[in-house]
Amino acid sequence: MVGYEGRAGGRAAARAAGRAGDRPGGGVPGVLWVPAVIAIAFLVLPLVALLARAPWGSIPEQLFTPVVGDALRLSLLSALAATVLCVLFGVPLAWVLVRSSDWASPVFRRVLRALVLVPLVLPPVVGGVALLLLLGRRGLAGQYLYDWFGVSIPFTTTAVVLAQTFVAMPFLVLAVEGALRGADRRYEDAAATLGASRWLIFRRVTLPLVAPGVSAGAVLCFARALGEFGATITFAGSFPGVTQTMPISAYLALQSNPDGAIVLSLALLAVSLVVLVSLRDRWVGVGT
Fold first, then answer.
1. Long-range contacts of range 15-22, CB-CB < 8 Å, 24 or more positions apart?
2. Which residue from 42, 80, 93, 115 has the highest number of Cβ atoms inside 10 Å of its Cβ?
């Protein structure tokens, strides 16, 4: 009976909220409609132009050309590899950021979080330069990899994956961090009381609790890695079949093969739309 009354009360509150939005004071002020419509047009009309100029009849042919096909294959594989790396390293990093409040000072946590999230606001080209200075043949770490093992990372497919991982990992960290902060720690405390080790608690309790956040972050990482341009072309270059991803190929094709550039842009747009639709509730936290 209590559960039924609670659900009935929740539905009544929702209906009341809906009616409140219909009142004169609950709507959108008329003065805001003009800039809102301008903003919508500014964001939507370029996409409309892309769809209007798309060579729909030759899309299959364009997708199977060697250049476009290689770029598509490389982008999908490298973005998938970057997503795996982001999950492997980003989930523990998010856990450290959240749980460090138990032992670290607030200043340390703020500095650490700022450093982790720098790629979100850093120009991608700067990230590529930084990776080159770290892992290049004369870089801080790259010189030892080359001198001792003969390993050269820049301008290889590995460089593509690392550049994509660098720019995409903060998206996963943010998603998992939010899920960890929203998780009920009483389950972890109960498992610890029963004698479970920290690793067992993390594996069997924490990870299942934050699984939706991990999946949402992984999808965001994949989309961000798939669309990466600046850091990739700076650190990995543009070699067909090796480092020339879809964004790079679209940029180069715009000069000699506009139809191919449009087809690649449509593919990237389709992936972005799928990501946004799949993350609708998880990202904004409100269903529609």
1. none
2. 93
Can you list the domains of the chain with their CATH numbers? 61-281 (1.10.3720.10)
Measured CA angle at 97 (ends 96, 103), to 5 deg: 75
The per-residue pLDDT for range 63-77, each reduced to its tens digit, is: 778 877 888 899 999
Q: Give the Cα separation of 73 and 70 in Å (integer).
A: 5
Per the CB < 8 A criterion, the answer to whether 140 and 97 are in contact is: no
Q: What pTM value is reported for the model?
A: 0.81
